Amino acid sequence: MSDTIAAISTAIGESGIGIVRMSGKNALNIARGKFVSIKGDNFKIENRKLSYGHIVDNDHIIDEVLISFMKEPYTYTRENMVEIYCHGGIIPVKKILELLLNSGARLAEAGEFTKRAFLNGRLDLSQAEAVIDMIKSKTDKSFEVSLNQLEGSLSNKINEIRDLLLSMIAHIEVSIDYPEEDIEEITYEDLEKDSNIVKEKIKALLSTADRGKILRDGLNTVILGKPNVGKSSLLNAILRENRAIVTDIPGTTRDIIEEYVNIDGIPLKVVDTAGIRDTDNLVEKIGVDKAKSIVEDADLIIAIFDVSTELSDEDIEIIDLIKDKKTIILLNKTDLQSLYDKDYFKKYIKNMHIISTSITNGIGLDILEDSIRDMFYSGEFNIKSDAIVTNLRHKNQLEKALKNIESVLNDLKAQVPLDCLEVDLKNCWENLGEISGDSVGEDILDRIFSEFCIGK
Ligand SMILES: Nc1nc2c(ncn2[C@@H]2O[C@H](COP(=O)(O)OP(=O)(O)OP(=O)(O)O)[C@@H](O)[C@H]2O)c(=O)[nH]1
Ligand SMILES: [Mg+2]
């Protein structure tokens, strides 16, 4: 970490300005060697001031720039930082970067600025991970959650639990090490009470992981129905492109088709499935079984029924599959002669959104999008942007921590000796420490930061 790193921090391509930045002990010296102020020496590079001038290679002008210097420790990396604002486009940024590299800087690795911020104590690990989530956010909502995480919403919760664990561990150690002292001994009841608090707090965080998954991967929306009702037509209509094959032959779709769309900031993963029916065709049968099994993992189901045909056994089977799921029902092909209507259908299913549609004529699709939006924002999927666990690594650590605290609770019931309990308590404390980065290995750090872009 003693060397000075440099990288292009803006996206490569045509743009108004481009930014090249450096971090490290020598950043200022390197910049001074290559910057010439246009207004003369009075306008040298100074802490937290913008200077206007040229970047030069010997006497040759590379570009006209603004340059800023931020003195450690109050910077992103907690090191000296220099930023050079040059013209956008590929050439100026590359030339300036090359010059800095030839003058003693080293090309930064992916995420190395943020890694330094973490190693220098400016951010904890979950905050550093929030930075990458922000950069990769595809929707307002996931950006908002990442921003909260960067502000410390998750870190605060984790630290609260770790503090409690630490005080339990300290009490146990005192009781073991200084039994003769007149210190109030910790009782099994005290420990049980605190362990239960720890357990509930971990569980509360874990319960947000599903919402986090929705924000990260999109609302898992599965289109279900018997063959030929218009599932693939709906997928194409939502995507506004001809993604899936549509024919009037029942059994057209054999496999699962997944696509991502964004409806008013709501990320959706839309899954088209094979029409559900009894079939002897091996390929189709596998598709039907797949369709049935993904119902389990769906956040939302759009079940389509074709009102131009009688409600069949397959339809009834589908109604049975979706009974306890969040579902929107489409009664499709209303442009044809309808054999039944909403009121008739309500006999089979209660408390669900039912929408009449004609997908081929584009009728009812706006109501469908409205319903999805209403369900999402009215909190049916429970997306609140408090501390939400969006990161699989965090979820795994929380699960490990939960196991450990549960084993502490079991041991407390069995009244095992205090020093035996301490091991699981410490493990729990360390599991959570891996989220904030207090106890985390080099290999995990490398893996996390390698996901970043260069220059961040
Ligand atoms: N009249 C009418 N036809 C429709 C409507 N929606 C879809 N269709 C037609 O119904 C047929 C089947 O549509 P698909 O979208 O392939 O149906 P599917 O549910 O994906 O069928 P499988 O993949 O076989 O399960 C096609 O000929 C569509 O043009 C509609 O609202 N009205
Ligand atoms: Mg289809």
TrEMBL record:
Alphabetical list of InterPro entries matching this protein: G_TrmE, GTP-bd, GTP-bd_TrmE_N, GTPase_MnmE, MnmE_dom2, MnmE_helical, P-loop_NTPase, Small_GTP-bd
Gene Ontology cellular-component annotations: cytosol
Residues binding (6S)-5-formyl-5,6,7,8-tetrahydrofolate: 21, 83, 122, 456
Documented EC number(s): 3.6.-.-
Keywords carried by this UniProt record: Cytoplasm, GTP-binding, Hydrolase, Magnesium, Metal-binding, Nucleotide-binding, Potassium, tRNA processing
CDD domains for this protein: trmE, TrmE_N
Cofactor: K(+)
Cofactor binding, per record: Binds 1 potassium ion per subunit.
Protein name: tRNA modification GTPase MnmE
Originating organism: Paratissierella segnis
